[in-house]
Amino acid sequence: MSFSEILRMTFQNMRSNLLRSILTIFIIAIGIWALIGIITSLDAVAYSLNDNLSGLGANSFTIERKGGQVGSNRRGRRQKSGEAIKIEQAQEFKDRFEVRGKVSISFWASSLATVKFEETETNPNIGFVGVDENYFDVKGMSLEHGRGFSKMEVDDGQAKAILGLEVAKKLFNDKPEQALDKIVLVGNIRYRVIGILASKGSSMGNQDDRAVYAPLINVKAYYGSAQTNYNLIVAVNDAAEMESAKSEATGLFRQIRHLRPGDEDDFELFASDSIVAILKENTRSLQLAAFGIGLITLFSAAIGLMNIMLVSVTERTREIGIYKSLGATRMSILTLFLSEALVICQIGGISGIIIGVLTGNLLSLILGGSFVVPWFWVILGFFLCLTVGVVSGFYPALKASRLDPIEALRYE
Questions:
Q1: What is the pTM of this model?
Q2: Is the pLDDT of residue 225 over 90?
Q3: Is residue 272 part of a domain?
Q4: Rounded to the nearest 5°, which phi and psi values hold at 35?
Q5: In the listed set 218, 241, 265, which residue is the last one of a domain according to the structure?
Q6: What is the dihedral of CA 295, 300, 306, 311, to 10 degrees?
Q7: 95: which residues sit within 8 A by CB, 6+ positions away?
Q8: Rounded mean pLDDT of 360-380?
Q9: DSSP readout, 11-41?
Q10: 312 and 226, same domain (yes or no)
Q11: Domain limits at 158?
Q12: Is residue 98 part of a domain?
């Protein structure tokens, strides 16, 4: 029998047992769906977070006070949080840091601000951030219209503002360029708009487009207190100086925080690449779990498919005898039954891959991620289905090929 004839007979046999074939395809599709769907959503969210963190730049790191985490000592005491980074400490660090690069000080004053222009007003969910002249450079943020803050404007605490693109569109009827040189109210405080930020999107909860930025000293005067914590971001010019910059930053900030030689650091340094590495390490275990779920489901499908193929061999014993009496070889019979198992597995696998990629990306979009196709896992899923088809179909096919034609013809 030719290959085209074998393929035609394969689909004909599947149609004659349509419900059985559909159920088997469905089981296989579920296994691949579980595998590809979970991994697609994990990869999409990871890539999105990586894109957001890349805004800090490959040569950037932040300095944050140490947070309160549950310790692992026997008494189960909570680790003491580091004191808030005060404006004087942040400013001293900025003035004394000697590695070539830039240091930015910022302060997230509110996430519930309301911005108003004439009769148009935003919802009370706008971020209000105090920044210095280096903030947008070290964060990798660019302006769509206007300009950034000068050092004089920051030092003087002038009442000027830069709007996120979404805020500007809301206030100026989707014409953000009209916001330049206009007076807006943030709460009850008047600010003259000097710039509009380019969009960074809303992936992974990013709020840059829904925020207003003003000079740090100005925002501190209205929102600052003795307990306010200020953020430090350091960007070095040369990636080769990254480690030395971290070492100098640690030593310098220990001096500024008046820590003695034996004292533990009450602050932490975070680089964007290290955060991504932690994320990848955590998602790897989830990927392995998804792989395990997929394998278990495919193993069950393989057992079911083998059982169905054995039943099919029994049901078609007389048909096999007719094929052999007409000259079909053992290899032709083996190929016929094996191809049926392979076709069922591949239809189920391709269906599971398509549904898995779509549902995984749907979940990712809901969480604010981006669309991705995990090609490695797609190819792996394809070969897994191929393996399942061969393993579950080979023995029934071999059994069919070894049937005696005379006994097969006499089978009732």
A1: 0.58
A2: no
A3: no
A4: -70, -55
A5: 265
A6: -160
A7: none
A8: 77
A9: HHHHHHTHHHHHHHHHHHHHHHHHHHHHHHH
A10: no
A11: 83-265
A12: yes
